[in-house]
Model the fold of this input.
Amino acid sequence: MKLQAIQAAEAKLLLPTYERNPILFVDGEGMYLIDDNGERYLDLLSGIGVNALGYGHPAVLEAIERQSRKLVHISNLYFHEGQAELALRLTERTGLDRAFFCNSGTEAWEAAMKLARAYSALRRSEGRMLGTRFLALENSFHGRTMGALSTTHKEKYREPFAPLVPGADFVRFNDVDHLRASFSSEVCAILIEPIQGEGGIRPVSQEFFAAARELTQSTGALLIADEIQSGLGRTGKWCAYQHFGIQPDVTTLAKPLAGGLPLGAMLCTAEASRAIHPGLHGSTFGGGPLACAVAIAVIDAIERGGILHHVHETGRYFKRHLNDLAAKHESVTEVRGMGLMLSMELDSAEMAKRVVAKMLERRILINRTSETVLRFLPPYIMGAEHVDLAVSALNDILTEEGAGLHSLAAAHQNTGGSRNG
Ligand SMILES: Cc1ncc(COP(=O)(O)O)c(C=O)c1O
Done:
């Protein structure tokens, strides 16, 4: 089917949940996606932070081929070779003890929320004062299922589905005083994205994160770090919380975990895992043999290829060039992020929209989040040459946009400007 036929069929047959760009991708190679006309697009978004090794990586292809010849699915009623092997890799890299596997970010988050409620109930049964409330952060995004949504801050995502799961309060981002004032033994968990993703690539402050760790330790509540977007090497470390030297009790992973196959994981301490027993939580598909085999291959490829170091170095190079653009173009208000989780904030949502569209015309994929923020989540294999291409395109576009604004302002002045308007 051609693009137009697919568009017409989807308009009739699918729920209108997405506003897709009118491009039909049929192939991919390394850092590039390829459309049905054979045009190549430099991908700086990697399927929203998923395709960490780019397209057609031999480690991913080999694992899919090898495992799919053996077993794709068996359910969680029986053993297969992959879960313990993957859990070993993840526990070693996250500093946590036990893993639960599911199929997506939001499901990993649901598992973390359920664990926090079950653990607080266990502690109460052991005589400890611990309530059931969640403290989440303003501007947070944790997913779109009902539980995850109740800890996601943005009103536009929440409001149509009210009432949500009760018991979540929001703390002002990086406001330590507000965090301390909101915390009590009623709280079962503090929920933090170490770097807010959908919220515009905003790192939490060291002071705020440390205060959250100290408060939760004082009552036995859990500190839960959502690393679904920032985890598994995206920031140059396995988890973004490792940049802060803070160890949470629970973390969630998903996006890049299985090289593009759906897989999520919730990891926790042995202490928190005491709250779970057979039958309390589960998943039909979660942690299937194919997804686990690919995830093991992804982690090994990241390790063997020295990719964490590469992400760190390439991210620094990219960020330095974005900062140069910020110094040169008035419309850029801030550059944020770590490793290859970067953003550039502009002074208007309209301009951010136009810049994304003009990058697409130049066949470079980025996206806009939080209205005014250009977001970069490229595959970890991005090289300096790809950074140079992206930065040069951004520079041209921001120059055009700036010139456009200046000529508008000049025209406005020539016609009498606001005095007559
Ligand atoms: C920090 C964070 N948590 C949770 C989610 C939800 O993940 P998923 O879309 O896989 O359900 C996302 C998705 O963007 C995310 O960025």
User: Anything to note?
Assistant: The pocket of pyridoxal-5'-phosphate is lined by residues 104-106, 109, 141-143, 193, 197-198, 226, 228-229, 254 (CB under 6 Å). The first helix runs from residue 3 to 13.
